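Exercise (ungraded).
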Amino acid sequence: MEKDLVIGIDIGGQTTKCGIVDARGTVLSQTVIRSDSTEDVEEYISSLAETLYRLMADADAVERIRGIGVGVPNGNYYTGEVEDAVNLSWGRSGSIPFATMLEAHMNGIPVSLTNDANAAAMGEMTYGAARGMKNFIMITLGTGVGSGIVINGEVVYGHDGFAGELGHTCAVRHNGRPCNCGKSGCLETYASATGVARTAREWLEMTEEPSTLRSLDKITSKDVFEAAKEGDKLAIKIFEYTGRILGESFADFIEFSAPEAIVLFGGLARAKEFLVEPIQKAMDENVLPLWRGKVKLVFSQLKESDAAILGASALAWEL
Amino acid sequence: MEKDLVIGIDIGGQTTKCGIVDARGTVLSQTVIRSDSTEDVEEYISSLAETLYRLMADADAVERIRGIGVGVPNGNYYTGEVEDAVNLSWGRSGSIPFATMLEAHMNGIPVSLTNDANAAAMGEMTYGAARGMKNFIMITLGTGVGSGIVINGEVVYGHDGFAGELGHTCAVRHNGRPCNCGKSGCLETYASATGVARTAREWLEMTEEPSTLRSLDKITSKDVFEAAKEGDKLAIKIFEYTGRILGESFADFIEFSAPEAIVLFGGLARAKEFLVEPIQKAMDENVLPLWRGKVKLVFSQLKESDAAILGASALAWEL
């Protein structure tokens, strides 16, 4: 039977999303399991494999799977290993030969893996906003800031497989916010969902400016977005600040690889209406004249519920 | 006759160096002409072609040239054009179809061109310190700061052919020094030969610190280097500062492309003994833990008088 389908698996700290995908990017069927129910990677992979077999059987696809693509934090494309993934209950320390282990459970169906942001870039290039582009930078604005860099039509993995950590480039050199990575001033401490909430808390404390956000107990980036939509001036300013920080960083990224576009994806990218202008302005003010107004700023076109699976699945077509 | 030789041409603002190079990286013969004797590009190219024919005749190499590689400011690898090269008397505005024009004068010998820093990266990969490396970043520390980025064994040209302007990434975000490019705070305003001289002038004015540099009328980076070698403390501190700025920037570059090494070349790289430690320290302090102590910092191994020609010539082997 023709191998005309692939499986995409997106592993996050809490949940694992799996789906069967065809060449046009349709998710034929999908399901979710918990990622954090065990600290034993063998146990996790067994239950994952069981889930995949059930998914394939239900979709009548057992013989049609060409490969499995996995997007996983700290996934190394070169080695197929997951290395020191602090956010995964079963992956906290050392190297796990994840791809090899999953292949063994899947009757030899080949498995390829990379980190989630690189998978997102593959998805966008294969099915989304970056179709036809050979040079672009994917920025995922979620709890953190991830990135996938595509040059000459290929994801950049670098010498060791871990290239593209743009969320940890320096946005604020002195007295920057401490980051989970141990450094300070990293882009993701400002321009992630967490960063936006942090900016809100800081500004509420430091200024007297009236804002509907003052009535909230615990502020999330979603609250800031809702407030901005209601016209709350402080909330709008928070996005302007976030956008400026992003735009300044994007200018440096452009000077590195001269991409055709920067593609934004993730929860925070939903605040597009408040982010586009400040990003574009800061990008143009900080980039060399030759790129001013030339590099596109585009937002992901993938359905958010499918995007993670599609991104991971895109890896499998290369197998 | 076998085409076993190439020509390398390095075009700078004042001089143009040309040489005939064999596959082992030996410069068989070379010569220099002025770059700025005319504002007419036709005239410049005619005299360049004449020089090349003389060079080939003298080396008995007329039939043996496989191709010509040119390193030139604002040279676009994709189009073979030189675009808005403000430092070239005949190239100040608009696009010059340089490769096509030179080919026409050279009886159809193919011509490939790129900017000088990309050419340096090619040279280092073909004949120098980066032999065998597939992922590295070349940084040229001259009057300005140039860069050539190699990923998967190929120079990164980006969407438009101009990728790799790392000298214009932001080193100092607020109140940074104005740069010739129109922006401020660019890496090259601090970490170039000009930048080092500027730091010296600023520090001499702002502090009372004793220094042999105070007796000089006009300070160059070479003066600072000489003073540092004599043990002048201020001069040594100037290199420490320069090294820190470089190391901080290198940390961000590593987070982009995860190179095996950063290769330094150019006049300022001669101050290696004063730069290595501060660069390495700042690089390690500012990079993600996973790369700490892992990315090599190496200095060009090419003879300085040959390097520019070798770099440009390396392009021609690809033709």
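Further reading is listed at the end of the chapter. For now, observe: Residues 5-122+305-316 of chain B form a domain with the Nucleotidyltransferase; domain 5 fold (CATH 3.30.420.40). The CA atoms of residues 249 and 312 of chain B lie 26 Å apart.
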